[in-house]
Amino acid sequence: MSGLNLHLLQPNTQRTTPSGCVVFVHGGGFLGGAPSQFYPYAKAVSRQYGIPTACCEVSCLLTHPRAKVPIESVEDARRCVKYLQEKADDFGLDPDKIVLAGASSGGHTAAMAVLGAEEGLGLAGLLLFNPVLDLRFQERWRERRWCTWLGSSALRMRYGKKILEEESPIFNTRQLRQPVLILHGTEDRLVPLEEVEHFQEKMEGSGSDCKLVTFPGEGHFFFNWRVSPGNFYRCVGLLGDFLKQVGVLS
């Protein structure tokens, strides 16, 4: 995959029929990050629900300085999903039962991989952890952290306002056939809750099934196992419920 890694974890349980799969896209503020961010989730989901999981690497500024990040990162995620669908028979997968998940900048990547795909990806569902939805970062601008201001300025200088809007999920909302679930901390200072609520309202207004589950008092990294084991296991449980909703689990 053009120098990018895709890590596939198969469960120990024997399967007689093709099964669904969860594909995780890492975050890292578009600067860095690695598939290993989602190893704890991949292992927990595979063990608890008995399905394969995959951790997808996408282009980042530090690892792929010549890439047009985050624009090419979105295409990386699409190629990852398409690769698994094309190799579904080899991996024992059902190509129509793949759920794409992403966190933070990876949430932006996963969302745009679906919203910006003209022909669709044939996914069963989309799961977003504290996703970046507006590359202009305008919501509650004064309350954001300095690293957000710096990153936003760099993106504006490189791409301009028009392209940033074209590449922002919040400006690309449309009706999707697959359900969307968003998990978000109410005290997130990197991606304000209002940004996510605005996105959810626009998605529902377009006819999409888009649900938001909030974690009161929690910040941007609430879902990480090292930050809060309690939140981690709650997220795994919510993911399991979502997999049942979209037909990946019986």
Automatic annotation (TrEMBL):
A Pfam family the protein falls into: Abhydrolase_3
Keyword Hydrolase belongs to the record: yes
Domain of life: Eukaryota
Record's keyword terms, sorted: Hydrolase
Domain Alpha/beta hydrolase fold-3: 22-223
SUPFAM superfamilies, per the entry: alpha/beta-Hydrolases (SSF53474)
InterPro entries (UniProt xref): AB_hydrolase_3, AB_hydrolase_fold, GDXG_lipolytic_enzyme
PANTHER family to which the protein is assigned, alphabetical: AB HYDROLASE SUPERFAMILY PROTEIN C4A8.06C
Name this polypeptide is given: Alpha/beta hydrolase fold-3 domain-containing protein
Protein's organism: Durusdinium trenchii
